[in-house]
């Protein structure tokens, strides 16, 4: 059992390292092609700048890779893994624990879809304009630019939403967090503070009475 557990941990670390490596590779085009210009209004504008002769092709290629590796493949893996988990949960008796686990799964998938789907739709619409699949219209182009800016912030918000979901919905995560806080002495101090406030409130109440 110990060897199997060690192998699982090794595989988990390997998968995490691979995900981080792929993420770093996907960031390289934007890193090496980034530029900043100052407009007449003294406003600094940061953007990706490619070779004018092949800018549309490079931008389209990088976006297809980002759509695939940053949204479609993670979503497919998520649905597959969580689908297997849900199937096993349905075989297990124990209503409360099963419902709690189901809530975690649904919350994580819904958060991923709500945060990242609008951004990828906006980027796809922008790609259609750049490749002239959709005729260029100034109002629609402006709307897409605004949508990309807003939905990018929504997508980045997903990194903040996930820990909150696991903290408030996941029982195991909450238990581990409480254990860590106890070891760090934070939970004891908070408990002492609450107890002192409670005793002070009781003393004030008894004095008033």
From TrEMBL:
An example Gene Ontology biological process: neutrophil chemotaxis
Keywords: G-protein coupled receptor, Membrane, Receptor, Transducer, Transmembrane, Transmembrane helix
Transmembrane segments: 12-32, 64-84, 104-129, 149-169
Entry GO MF terms: C-C chemokine binding; C-C chemokine receptor activity
Keyword Translocase: no
One cellular component (GO) term of this entry: external side of plasma membrane
InterPro entries cross-referenced by the UniProt entry: CCR1-9-like (IPR050119), GPCR_Rhodpsn (IPR000276), GPCR_Rhodpsn_7TM (IPR017452)
SUPFAM superfamilies: Family A G protein-coupled receptor-like
Main location as per UniProt: membrane
Highest taxon of the lineage: Eukaryota
Subcellular location as annotated: Membrane
Domain G-protein coupled receptors family 1 profile: 1-166
Gene3D superfamilies tied to this protein: Rhodopsin 7-helix transmembrane proteins
PANTHER family with a match to the protein in the record: C-X-C CHEMOKINE RECEPTOR TYPE 1-LIKE, CELL ADHESION MOLECULE
Protein name according to UniProt: G-protein coupled receptors family 1 profile domain-containing protein
Source organism: Scophthalmus maximus
